[in-house]
Amino acid sequence: MVTLEEQNYNQSLRAYNAIKEQLKKQINKEIEISHVGSTSIPSIKYGKNIIDILIGAKDKKEFAEIAKILESINYIPSDKSKTEEYQFFASTNEETKSGDIHIHLALKDTNRYKEFILLKEYLLENEKEAIAYSNFKQKLIEEKINDRKEYKRLKSEYVTKIIEKINKITYWKWRKYEK
Q: Whole-model pTM?
């Protein structure tokens, strides 16, 4: 069952910063660690209150090393999502709930990594879009979309449309400089 709650951006930011420091100590490398997802956007009112963290690995060797460290500190990998350039880790094996941590490990030079960053930047710069996204998630719950897989599928479709919009904007922005 999917439940949303009102999010507290400042509380989420404090939690993220504490987790980031722990990860830096454990990984013991200069790596990119970013707060992503709904809790990283102040104008997103509703969410699952999960701290999403993106870790960028510079190459496949570093990716494998970080994955091994994450497992050693009890983050649970998902084999369903694993590719050569991305893997998802969760702080718990149970149904996701408020206060959990999701880690997205990705190679930095991939679209998957860039899309996490672009989406966050876009939603930070476009408050109306962020509020619309928050309202969309709330609407799914109001429409009794309680099956986790269905909720994730619909939310993923929505995010894909936002990313396509970002890519079109970026494409046309760069096109005007080519002339």
A: 0.89
